[in-house]
Automatic annotation (TrEMBL):
It comes from Gilliamella intestini. This is UPF0208 membrane protein YfbV. One of its GO terms (cellular component) is plasma membrane. Signal peptide: none annotated. It is a multi-pass membrane protein. Keywords: Cell inner membrane, Cell membrane, Membrane, Transmembrane, Transmembrane helix. The chain crosses the membrane at residues 61-82. The keyword Ligase does not apply. It is found in: Cell inner membrane. It comes from the Bacteria. Its main location: membrane.
Length: 153
């Protein structure tokens, strides 16, 4: 796997993943995305503070450079992990959920039966199906009304 393709897959995966609190408990990548966005927000002032610290205080230049490089590498490490996660195959317990969501979307005629390649069931494909289900079937991913715990006659 090419390093640049992995980073590009990580960037695509950040844009693709939904930011639902309900899904945060099931998918660790949503927490990683939140941390990457926080780091991108607060990292520039931290680096400027480190440069001012180097200029004003008698600190060693090597310590400052290593600290700045470490701080800059944290979001890159997150992007790399997300890229690897996006391209990795789905575990067996999520394949059933993927197939159920896909069947519900096919039944509502939102996607065609042969629209996706089932040989490549990756986390990126799963997040695509989740986004389609949220958009067209609602927040509960098309749960039938009679099987809902809130359904009353």
């Amino acid at each position: 796997m090419n390093l640049i393709n992995t980073f590009k897959a990580g960037v695509r995966y950040i844009k693709l993943c939904p930011t639902d609190k309900q899904l945060m408990h099931s998918f660790p990548e949503l927490k990683i995305i939140k941390h990457i966005k926080t780091a991108n927000k607060y990292l520039p002032p931290i680096i400027i503070g480190l440069l001012v610290w180097q200029y004003c205080l008698p600190a060693q230049i090597a310590v400052t450079v290593i600290t700045i490089l470490f701080a800059l590498s944290l979001p890159l490490q997150g992007l790399f992990w997300l890229g690897r996660r996006a391209l990795s195959p789905l575990p067996l317990n999520l394949i059933d959920c993927y197939n159920q969501l896909k069947l519900k979307l096919i039944a509502k005629k939102i996607i065609a039966e042969n629209s996706t390649d089932d040989n490549k069931l990756t986390f990126e494909a799963f997040m695509n199906i989740i986004n389609l289900a949220k958009l067209h079937l609602g927040d509960y991913f098309g749960q039938d009304d009679d099987s809902s715990p809130y359904y009353k006659d």
